[in-house]
Amino acid sequence: MGRQRGPHAASRCWEWECGALTMADPRGLDSVSGPAPGARRRAWAELLAGRVTRQKPGPGTGQKVQDSAVRLLRSHLDWSGLLLEVEGPPCKKLCLGPLIDHDGPEACSNLSTSFIGSALRDHASQLGVPVAVLSSQMAASSIVRMCAAGAEHAHRVLLDTEQRKKLSSLIEITQYLLAHSMFSRLFFCQELWKVQNSLSLEALWRLHVHNVVSLWELLESCADLQAVVSWLFRNLRLLCEQVEAPCQHTDIARAMLSDFVRIFVLMGFQKNSDLRRNVEPEQMPQVARDVLERMLLFALEALAAGLQEESPAHKAVSCWFSTFSGQTFGSIISTDAPKRFFSHTLTQILTHKPVLRVSDAVQMQREWSFAKMPPLLTSLFRKLFVILSPEELVGHLQEVLETHEVNWQHVLSCVSTLVICLPEAQQLVHDWVARLLARAFESCDLDSMVTAFLVVRQAALEGPSVFPSYADWFQASFGSARGSHGCSKKALVFLFKFLSDLVPFEGARYMQVHILHPPLVPNKYRSLLTDYITLAKTRLADLKVSIENMGLYEDLSSARDVTEPHSQAPQDVEKAILLFEHTGKIPVAVMEASIFRRPYYLSHFLPALLTPRVLPRVPDSRAAFIESLKRADKIPSSLYSTYRHACSTAEKNPENTAPGMKVEPNCVDEPLKLLMIALGGLRAAMTDPAQYDVLSAQIAVISERLGPALGVSEDDGSCEASKIQLSVLAPELEQQEQKVVDLLLTSFCQNLMAASSFAPPDRQGPWAARFTMTMCGHALLPAVLTRLCQLLHHQGPSLSASHVLGLAALAVHLGESRSVLPEVHVGPPAPARDLSIPEFFNSLLTCRTAESSRLCLKSVPVYMPLSAYRIIPARLCGGTWFCTAAISYSLCKFSSQSRDILYCCLSPGLIKKFQFLVFRLFSEARDPLSQEDTAGLAWKPLGLPSMDWQRAALCLWRQRTFQELLKEKQFHLTYRDWLQLELEIQPEVDSLSDTERRDFHQWAIHEHFLSQPAAAGGCDGDLETACTVLVDVLLDFCQSSRSHNHSENSDLVLGGCTGNRDIFSRLQEMAADLEQGPAAPYSHSSSRGHFLFRVFRRRLQALASGWDVAARLRKQQELLMYKRVLLSLPPLVLVGSPQVEQPAAPDCDEFFHLVNSELRNFCSQGGALSHDITVHFFRGLLNACSQSRDPSLTANLTLTACQTKCPIVLTSALLWWPRLEPELHCRWRRCFQGPLPPELQRLQEAQQFAQSFLSPDTAAPAPGPAWVSAAALHFVIQQAGKESVESALEKLDCQREELLVCLFFFSLMGLLSSHLTPHIRQTSSAKAGDSLKALHVCGEILGFLQKRKISWLVLFQLTETDAGLGRVLLRLAPDEYIRLLPLAFYSLLSYFDKDALIRENAFLHVAVDMYMKLTCLFVAGETSAVSTPANRSQELQSQGDPVGLIRKARLFLLQSIPQCPKKSFSNMEELLATSGDWDPEVSTALLSRQQAVSDTDLYQEPHLF
Predict the structure, then answer these.
(1) Taking the CA of residue 957 as centre, how many other CA atoms within 13 Å lie in the half-sphere pointing to its CB?
(2) Helix (H, G, I), strand (E, B), or coil: what is residue 728?
(3) DSSP secondary structure string, 699-726?
(4) pLDDT digits (tens, 9 = 90+) for 1430-1445
């Protein structure tokens, strides 16, 4: 049935409907008009002829006509077409389309469904079938027709928009039929499954969602359940692929997938499933489980086969794994089905294809650590761990290992993920291993033994922070009499038999552990141990690992390969010297090695220690260590004498090499003269550079005379070093070496100029390559490279044209030989990595200044006739450019050879610099090249005498060969490359003016790189991408050593780094463009968040984590740069624009997360952020308010969110309120002409409340919340004088309890801050005064708390799981301060009311916990940050000395323990169990007192009545 449009749609529709009726049943009209059967069919005109006379309407005539028309239409309908009709003319016309239009009015819809129901009932009665069967058949046929409309998509599981409209209409009709008992679900399902391959998965889903027919009913009605499983698996897999594919129906696909997973989980794993159906009770759950298992099997097999990123299989697996989430199972989490499903899934993973043997696992488990695991498998394990508790996981893992054949790779990967992701599981795994060992030795169970060792080794691979090292575990398990192996000879035999069986398969590290930390064995069974050690040493010998030559400090817990002794010895020496510096004693490991490991000590350690050198006048640590060893008779006299003699020789001759020895001048001059004669002979032979034999003979003479000139013998050979160490900033050469190298370089340049005057480079023969290889021999290459570094990097602008020309050609030929030359390791400013020769030359050429840019680009092509140089003005010769020379020479020299040779000769960085400089200096090069520009140019014009360096560079740029070279990806200048080079430009010495530089930046960013595709290094037209790359490159530049090597006059950009400040201006401009655009990123509406915070998150994730000094400094430097970037961009970046919907609160979550996770720890001052970032945030808040329809509401909502999400923003505002308030008042009055919003007024009231404490008047009432008022009061007290502080503290007695507790917390932070961050400009006495003041304030507040019996111990037990105030307080202080709370706790020892504290049940637990943590802090060295200098007062020294503090705390505990009541000892055993052997005396006192209390209770008479 078609759709009717236009003004005459009603009449056409009526005619079309009538025609359809006539064709459907020819008897219809006859029966209406009344002729006998077989009579002639009459036309409409004849039928209506007798109706010309107008009949008088009587009562009920209209109803009769309407009933007749309805009967006529009911009897002649196309049912499938009717059910699919969705559009038509207006309802007042007589047409069936609008009657079932799902977009029509409700009355129309009711009329259409009732009409169709009535018609179906009549038609069913005519056919003699039940109406439910007929309607079900018609609906199934309609769905099949609808799905077939998308048959062009053979594997489509989703409907298109048109199909969804039709299906919606059909569902509406079907729901009506169901409501009136005119529809059979069973018959409908059976009809659908007859054509299941034509069905769309979305159609079934919508039928289920709209309660037409449930998925359970659909499945149970199918006779072939295996076919259903296959069909569902195939469609679910396709659905997973479409979920990850970019399309407009992704949300629908995700909803479908989540619903199907939930249904299958409930169907297959719910304990009390609805089994009222007609199939076998176990069939439906089995179907659901089969579908889920097949999907998991597909994913695991895809992982095992290796997945390519962005492949359909990768997308499908990733999508399927994403369904294992709380979002999917949130609505059914209350049932036990998800947990049962997750357990079943974990079993399937652990038992999938158990083909690996135990021996394979022993050999390969090092490759299955968490870091090396496929990310998809890691994510799956982590999702499974969410619902299952650690106890359930470990128990399940144990059960699977005991009852199934397992896939060892998956099992051990699961163990790694378990101990990494669930800290609670670490002890559970440890206990499980202990049980396995006990069972193994009890019944000689080999399976338990294998499992225990594999699990321990796997967990130990994740590092000591997660699990004890294998060496520690092995020693703890078998190194004492408590071990399970010592119970009998049978157990010992079992252990050593097991260890012996492992020998052929395990790594050398494990055998070294077994040998160096052997099991404790009774003397009578010693032979078992010696037999194993012999076997293990034999295996180590086969592996070429000597146990005697192990390093002193070699990490046995590491699973990496064993290092060679000569590599380990220098590290051992440095470690030993470091320990000697700290202790002043010979390290124990050195003393033990001198007795028990003499082969390594004498052959490797002492030679590395006694390396001859010039001894310092004041003995350093190494000299003192050597003398200590000598006095202890640990250095043989002969070896010590040899060392001293060598050192004396070094003092007389520091160089200790032939070139540096002082000899007669005549002895030096003679070899140099002979070398000069040989070089002159080569110059004379250059009249015909193609005569190979003559040039080769002369080069051989030069090579022969190089050795005597350098003072080295022929045995030294060519450079055999694997790496050349070179300092770019301070390259140094011996005088003799420099003379020889200068002769060679001058000769090469002169010979090149001479040869070029007779022939172009491609016809000069191989003389240049031969000469270059000669310079690389006789250990001369380091000297050559050092001299080139001096010339190009430090003296480049002063070089003549011929020098630049020759050095460029030399660089090309050195690159040609890169495969046989060692790499160069250079210092800053080059990258911290080993460089090939071409990359080394690229690192020497910078573009920072106008002079260095010209040198980088310099040189006319080298085959220009020598006479040309006599004609070119001197200013042009001095301005010829290096890159032009090197590229031109390469293209000409190797024009007829393979392109691969060109790639070897030239560094991609050199070609990129040439492009960068051409774009930068020549505006004509920025226009696209036409065909004429590149087609007709040859190399010949480049040799014209009248050409200057500018024309030479432009001619090279337009050369077709060069442009083809630039099409290679490695040579193409990308946006990121351009930014890196432009950042190095120093504007004050730039060749471009400020205006020219700005124009160039605008062209490069907006006209060139922005529009380029990403594959070509551009931004795909995305300005946000351009900003992202710019920020990333800017931060990389500031972290690199290049940014710290400029002149002192350079402008600051970020964090002390210098560079092109204009690039940062471009970032600000682009950020402003983004803000003003139609989709401003500052609204944060995108799920990806603001580009700036995405860059920050990615970079922070890449940084090394940890609390060591290096990691902290690196992270702090990174965060300071982030802060400066944020401060340089519009403030709205921090806050975001208000949401369109109400309430109009801007989205600050990204900034809050940055503050809470990073800035709070590294850029705060003990509870508050710095002034600049605080003011920037509030400026952004005001800007957001100006864009909101309700500014006051926006401000209130934002600041209210701060209270829970980022409270440190509010405390920061309170700290800087005197400087912040005037600006807030001024801007708010100017923009909104009203009072400050209530939340800002609350901050103002808190400040007024705090200020009132310093006045003699009564203190103002404290506004809520209490911690805000407490913070304001704390900051005021901090800044007040001693007298004001005394008066302020006296007023505390009447304040609320919560406010006093919060104030005590802030005072603790102030006490720690006074130790950690004293003001730099203060004198020592002033610093001491601050610390004493902070201590006094803490003590006074503590006194008030104790006086009013307010519990304050909770402040020392704060955790992230705390709700309310506890979590807020944790977010107000840096993590370092929270870790140092034990130090603050015992600093207040003298202020404790001991009698009152002892009566508190929680006191002993807190005091012991603080003492344990204080001891750990001291051992970790973290208390050194708060150590008190000697010049401070005696009182402060007694508080700040960590050792003295620990001693006082220990004495306090020992005195308090006997006085504590019984309830104080609850949970004490758990606390002691987690601490280990931290203080035996305190542990003994605690346990003794606890036992005494228990015994007292035991002997008391029971209260029976």
Answers:
(1) 26
(2) coil
(3) HHHHHHHHHHHHT--GGG-S---SEEEE
(4) 444 455 555 557 788 8
